[in-house]
Amino acid sequence: MTLARTVIENCAVATVDEHDTEHERGHLVIAGNRIESVGPGPAPTGLAGVTRVIDATGHLATPGLVNTHHHFYQWLTRGLAQNANLFDWLVALYPVWARIDEEMVRAAARASLAMMVRGGVTTAMDHHYVFPEGAGDLLGAELGAARELGVRFTAARGSMDRGASDGGLPPDFAVETIEDALRATEAAVAEHHDPAEDAMLRIVVAPCSPFSVSTELMRESAALARRLGVRLHTHGSETVEEERFCHELFGMGPTEYFESTGWLGPDVWMAHCVHMTDADIAAFARTGTGVAHCPSSNARLAAGIARVPDLLAAGVPVGLGVDGTASNESGELHTELRNALLVSRLGPHREHALTARRALRLGTYGGAQVLGRAGELGALTPGRLADVVLWRLDGLGHSTIADPVAALVLGPPAPVTLALVNGVPVVEDGRLLTADEQDIAREAATQARRLARIVADA
Fold first, then answer.
1. Left if phi > 0, otherwise alpha if psi is -120 to 50, otherwise beta: which for 325?
2. By CB neighbour count within 10 A (0-12 exposed, 13-18 middle, 19+ buried), where does 177 fall?
3. How far apart are alpha carbons 120 and 198 in whole angstroms?
4. 251: which residues sit within 8 A by CB, 6+ positions away?
5. How does pLDDT run along the chain (458 residues), one tens digit per residue?
């Protein structure tokens, strides 16, 4: 049977392949859910099964963006605790988050995903770790939203068992028992994880952080993930307060603690990793442990500047993350390309910290590396999955930037004319095809007000 083919022509192409190959005016041919060919000039003539030809003059084609860290539920609590550091922010918001339910999570997930997808994200990731008793099927609410939006999704089934009475930050009513957390996580993998190369859904094991999870749960989670053959994710080395907490509680820094609990390895990635010593970076490089860099959230919570240039120089896999929208209210990953570059240049490497092309690589191939999907996603090369974005660069905001990659990274947010996931359009002319944005906005606002009323009455 002849595969249906889509031809995209007359655009600049940034392949983000191993050589950073670019075409000033090139083409892509997509056959089914795979990229069939990429190259300069027009597409080959005489192709069979062509159902659509797109004249992409004035556009840049890139791989779809890959998000490596998020907390969808936080969409309902944006704009709160505006001047707090991480620990104070968590103390203020945990009692609010502990009152979420399935309806709220569904609305928040739809809004978070819609914001990312319309901004060029084709692979989303979420780390959900708040499971109040009687709240309903919170993970299922997220999975349903991802299916509706048509996005490729990595769901990190999180957990917390260290409540305030045990020296943690969450209130006691917001945590699970070790047994319940492990049982629910294993069930999520058994029911939902798809190991296939073209999977639209994968599940990872993801206890929240050293200051909300016991050492036993950390160790047991690592053992569970490796028994099930899935990846591991958590927060690490985000703030100086966390560093102090780990030394006081465990007698060692975060990286040493992670290594002692089985939490370094090529199947692991950590969010933030702001406060890393040379020895920490060497340990990540030696073990192949990845990093989700979240520059806007790190700035919002005054966490600091992550040593991204040093991580990359050491060979550590690094991707980009939106992080939760209570600490990155824009909720958009494409703005993180720019912020990653700019924030890194405030550090010791200054103008040599990151280039525009390195920033684009972080948001595409780097993210695919971190999620364990570097052979499938993150580059426009024949055989890879057809997750492709066309960015419009011929409008006012980009009209005098001759370099299309610089225009995308350094210029204002570029409109997305087309986003394909698995070869299927999910965005056309900046508009979601899979859901109504106004409906999503109304539902999210309603659930945010409902949550606020519940908290006020508690």
1. alpha
2. exposed
3. 19
4. none
5. 778 999 999 999 999 999 999 999 999 999 999 999 999 999 999 999 999 999 999 999 999 999 999 999 999 999 999 999 998 999 899 999 999 999 999 999 999 999 999 999 999 999 999 999 899 999 999 999 999 999 999 999 999 999 888 887 788 888 999 999 999 999 999 999 999 999 999 999 999 998 899 999 999 999 999 999 999 999 999 988 888 889 998 999 999 999 999 999 999 999 999 999 999 999 999 999 999 999 999 999 999 999 999 999 999 999 999 999 999 999 999 999 999 999 999 999 999 999 999 999 999 999 999 999 999 999 999 999 999 999 999 999 999 999 999 999 999 999 999 999 999 999 999 999 999 999 999 999 999 999 999 999 98
pTM tops 0.85, yes or no = yes
CB 58, CB 392: distance < 8 Å: yes
Q: Which amino acid is at 63?
A: P
